[in-house]
Write a structure and sequence with these properties.
The protein is an alpha/beta fold. It has one domain (6-367): TIM Barrel, CATH 3.20.20. The protein contains 11 helices and 16 strands. The strands form 5 sheets. It has an 8-stranded parallel β-barrel with strand order 3-4-5-10-11-12-15-16. The chain has a two-stranded antiparallel sheet with strand order 1-2. The protein has a two-stranded parallel ribbon with strand order 6-9. Strand 3, helix 1 (40-48) and strand 4 (54-61) form a beta-alpha-beta unit. Helix 1 (40-48) packs parallel to helix 2 (78-91). Bound molecules: P-hydroxybenzoic acid. The site of P-hydroxybenzoic acid has 6 residues, from loops. Residues 28, 59, 180-181, 273-274 line the site of P-hydroxybenzoic acid (PHB).
């Protein structure tokens, strides 16, 4: 006998009742303007996917220096805030809560996209090895980043706050801090990328300081209950190495628990940034970290309807993200509900370009469903 679906149970996140437990997770699609301004094409894309219970808008940079790639949106200018409003309204059409993912890439950037043309800044001057930067002219080695001064760290913390305030002004219900995938927050957390000897490096208490300062700063502009945090505890993508990831991320989740956050968003061990890998031998079970967090937990990474239902039934997750399925199936919740067949993902148009591979995936006709 088929068990009852839980994906369509409502759930309260950040005090807001959501119509279902299906999450559109943040996905970089590079359809903003060259100045990081959201476009009408993005409005259409998010309207098409507004059947999710929670829409987490793609990684959105907090300053011009925070970016790695062209056509990624931002939340640092008045023009961007104004252009976000119709996008956010479109994503809210069917009752979804809509959060902005706030992003700073640190050493994953490159001088070719930095406003001053110099190498990016990071906790320590340690380049990424084993991976290459996705430049306009193909893959090239990462550069040695410049070390952030404490004054610059304070400026970045403040910029997260300003971006959070801008998100509220643009109509977002909340923000998600991107602390995953070897980007800036993760660079502070991991001892492989953080060799600092000041209050931001060394013991766990120091390496988590930046994360906690950023959350505290954002919480000056919106309630902590409207702030989510995303972690990828088992991933070493982009050279995110730590001598004891289990101790690190257990400590991080314990510190996040008790802040009254909207949610904890965990990336599954089989996901390495935008790619899929074999589960690392030393991976940390998602369930063990989720059990350390009392609030809502979102789990994302390689799931389908069946495995998503299992995460909910087993009490591991409260909501489930479906990235690739949502790219190819804008009406994914409806297809899940009606057990309709799913469209396959096409490689063309995942990053950049126009409507092809972005807004041209079909939705089911509403009649007859
Ligand atoms: C990507 O553009 O490939 C990308 C962006 C953000 C992530 C992971 C991958 O967190």
């Amino acid at each position: 006998m088929e068990r009852r679906s839980r994906l369509f149970d409502s759930v309260v996140v950040g005090g807001q009742p959501l119509p279902n437990r299906i999450v559109l997770p943040p996905l970089t699609r590079s359809r903003a303007t060259d100045h990081g301004v959201p476009t009408p094409l993005m409005e259409e894309y998010y309207r098409q996917r507004s059947g999710a219970g929670l829409v987490i808008i793609e990684g959105t940079v907090i300053t011009p220096q925070a970016t790695a790639y062209p056509r990624v949106p931002g939340l640092y200018s008045a023009e961007q805030v104004a252009a976000w409003r119709p996008v956010v309204a479109a994503a809210k059409r069917d009752g979804a809560a809509v959060y902005a993912q706030l992003w700073h890439v640190g050493r994953q950037s490159h001088s070719s996209v930095q406003p001053d043309g110099l190498p990016p800044k990071a906790p320590s001057p340690i380049p990424i090895t084993g991976f290459q930067y996705r430049s306009a002219n193909g893959r090239i080695p990462y550069e040695t980043p410049r070390e952030l001064t404490t004054a610059e760290i304070a400026d970045i913390v403040q910029a997260y706050g300003t971006a959070a305030r801008n998100a509220v002004r643009a109509g977002f219900d909340g923000v998600e801090l991107h602390a995953a995938n070897g980007y800036l927050v993760d660079q502070f957390l991991n001892d492989g990328s953080n060799h600092r000897t000041d209050q931001y490096g060394g013991p766990l208490e120091n390496r988590t300081r930046f994360l906690l300062e950023v959350i505290a700063e954002m919480a000056r502009h919106l309630p902590a209950g409207r702030i989510g945090v995303r972690l990828s505890p088992s991933s070493d993508w982009m050279d995110a190495h730590d001598s004891d990831k289990r101790a690190l991320y257990s400590a991080v989740v314990r510190r996040l628990n008790g802040l009254g956050l909207a949610y904890l968003h965990l990336v599954e061990p089989e996901i390495a940034g935008s790619t899929t890998v074999d589960r690392p031998a030393d991976s940390i079970p998602t369930a063990s970290l989720a059990s350390l967090f009392d609030g809502a937990v979102i789990v994302t990474g390689g799931h389908d309807q069946e495995s998503g239902e299992r995460l909910l039934a087993d009490g591991i997750a409260d909501l489930v993200g479906f990235g690739r399925l949502f790219i190819a199936n804008p009406d994914l919740p409806r297809r899940f509900r009606t057990r309709a067949p799913l469209e396959p993902l096409r490689p063309a148009g995942i990053y950049g370009g126009g409507p092809e591979g972005y807004t041209d995936y079909p939705s089911l006709a509403i009649s007859g469903v």
